[in-house]
Amino acid sequence: MKFRGKIIDVACLNHFTRVITTISKLTKMCVLRLTPDNLFFVLSGKVANGGVSMWCELSQANFFDEYQMEGVSSEDNEICLEVTPENLSRALKTVQNAKAVKVKLTKKHCPCLTIAAELPTLSSASRVVTHDVPVDVIPRRLWHEFKEPNMPDFDVSIYLPPLKTMKNIVDRMKNLSNFLVIEANLNGEMNLKIETDLVSVTTHFKDLGNPPWGDDASQDGGASQSRDPEAMVEARVDIRRLQQFLMGQQVNPSKAMCNIVHQRVVHLILLHEDVSLQYFIPAVA
């Protein structure tokens, strides 16, 4: 099992750091799955049991100038590691002005992702800073838990309003209740609602648009085809989980979408040209 990668381009390093920082805001621990073409950051909480789950996919060619890996075997050419994204984010933030950054799987007192950065100096001598981020190697028998989640059979899919605007609203609403209702329809309308015994507050968004999903998604299925475009579909979620998602965003997505399975789950998707992030928040009764 071997892995080593090298990032020389400063813009790629900054972007990679922003992605890791975003993930660190969403979860304390996650699985880093390495394949020859991609890196995946996975949190496989069981949504049915009330846990959030996450799937973030990066194309290695868009970040790494050099990338080599050998998996467990030729048939299973993957490596799965449990990591603390916060530790990875901290290490990367300290080497932002490096001439080159190498990331390597090493065996010290325990398995580590070793980040070695060549920093610029005034003299001809180079200065290398090294961080060892401990990881746990996940055995092959558990890999099935970290596969890409299926697209839920959603009732409504809608583009999200600007994330900063949404974050400001959710931050204010958090002071009123622990729960928030997200509702949307096929007419590009979305509402964020708080309803308690003392107060009822709703923020309305219009003309957001609905994504044109392909044949494999349920948006082309009979249920949503026959749905009244004005009819609202809703899910009540823990407001802290939504706030966590909005607080962490540093990916600057080109598209941000929300799929709702009525009273079951909210599926949030952020798309950047070289990163996709999916986040599942279960509905609460």
TrEMBL record:
Cellular component, GO annotation: checkpoint clamp complex; cytosol; nucleolus; site of double-strand break
One GO BP annotation of this record: double-strand break repair via homologous recombination
Keyword annotations of the record: Cytoplasm, DNA damage, Nucleus
Intracellular or extracellular location(s): Cytoplasm, Cytosol; Nucleus
Keyword hit for Transmembrane: no
SUPFAM superfamilies tied to this protein: DNA clamp
UniProt keyword annotation of Nucleus present: yes
Subunit and interaction comment: Component of the toroidal 9-1-1 (RAD9-RAD1-HUS1) complex, composed of RAD9A, RAD1 and HUS1. The 9-1-1 complex associates with LIG1, POLB, FEN1, RAD17, HDAC1, RPA1 and RPA2. The 9-1-1 complex associates with the RAD17-RFC complex. HUS1 interacts with POLB, HDAC1, FEN1, PCNA and RAD9B. HUS1 does not interact with RAD17. Interacts with DNAJC7.
Function: Component of the 9-1-1 cell-cycle checkpoint response complex that plays a major role in DNA repair. The 9-1-1 complex is recruited to DNA lesion upon damage by the RAD17-replication factor C (RFC) clamp loader complex. Acts then as a sliding clamp platform on DNA for several proteins involved in long-patch base excision repair (LP-BER).
Annotated protein name in UniProt: Checkpoint protein
Gene giving rise to this polypeptide: HUS1
